[in-house]
Specification:
Shape: elongated
CATH architecture of the largest domain: 3-Layer(aba) Sandwich
Strand order of the largest sheet: 3-2-1-4-5-6
Largest sheet: 6 strands, parallel
Strand content: 5-15%
CATH superfamily of the largest domain: NAD(P)-binding Rossmann-like Domain
Low-confidence stretches: none
CATH class of the largest domain: Alpha Beta
Structural class: alpha/beta
Mean pLDDT: 94
Radius of gyration: 24 Å
Length: about 450
Amino acid sequence: MKITVVGTGYVGLVTGACLADVGIQVTCVDIDQKKIDGLENGIMPIYEPGLKDIVLRNHAKGRLHFSTNLSESIKGSGAAFIAVGTPPGEDGSADLKYVLGVAQEIGQTMDDYLVVITKSTVPVGTAEKVRGAVASALDKRSASFSFDVASNPEFLKEGAAIEDFMKPDRIVVGIDTERAREMMARVYRPFTLNGHPVIFMDIPSAEMTKYAANAMLATKISFMNDIANLCERMGADVNQVRKGIGSDPRIGNKFIYPGIGYGGSCFPKDVKALARTGRENGHTMRILEAVEAVNDAQKSVLFNKINAYFGGELQGKTVAFWGLSFKPNTDDMREAPSVVIANLLLDAGAHVRAYDPVAMEEAKHQLGDRITYCADEMEAVRGADALALITEWAEFRVPDWSAVANEMNGKVLFDGRNLYRREIVGEIGFDYFGIGQGEQPA
């Protein structure tokens, strides 16, 4: 079997590499020649644990190929995945120009039956637009090749994408013909041999499933952040509350950790897009609009704590950041809370010294040289008046607090992820402020 994957970003590259790893011949196509040249030479465009190994292995085996030529790559393929970006417009809607551009090019170049699959996160109704773009291009060629469209949304967690693809909780596929169903079942058969289910449904339902899943997870995060903020005012400890409600199987213990707001490429974009879809169809998604508002406000919470601790006098203060990426095990800086917090501190006259294991190059695209990038966590705290934990990377879990204290000018820790215990850092003389733990700066 031969498959073409258009797009070598996060979704496309993971999809192509994992399909190749089960023996399928895959060509990943991208218009960015520099990115394709890099992949040919083993240079990954993104950081994702395990991705480089699987790409190198399958490229060496001759199962995974890279190209900028879609017309050549599509020949002989039974399926083509569209995995290009859908950036949000100013109104929050998903921009489909790249998806539809690829669909049109597929119609211009396909030479046999093909299943055209939207892997990108797209609004309900996009598959029909894809169908129209392919059909229009075929008509202009006076070509009569048959094709089907399918929706196959991804449910990959950044930092665990390879595991998620190879051992999925579920595979959602939207189809409207038996022939498309057979092709998709064939593609995913290697992943279902151990009982991982393929859930077939109609195409609009598959498109909605992706948005609904991310919106639900974002809602859980914002709900817990709202509860955490109330806990602070009431003297309750959200860590205890989380354990209490997480033991209820109807709620569960996933995505109920309070913090400094969600970020990344999915939740912010998808919540906005789904809310926009609601408005376009005469239905206000009131919960999602509140979810977004809570998340936007939560990204300022850590700055507010720092500002209150120093009595609003941040001019000349130095704050050390541990972590910059929106979550561990990724270099993704899209919608990262660190950017909001850093900009607020800089605008108040403070200095920021930061260390992140993998995201500092990406951070430079958003923060430039306005902050100081350090070689490790100890360099970051050197001479700092305060330490802020931004991203809960594993290497930050058990620091030598005595050594940290010796490097710093001040002894105050702002724990944006509730990773540490007040009593432990308190023994070294640190003032400690977490999220939703009752005790806050005056």
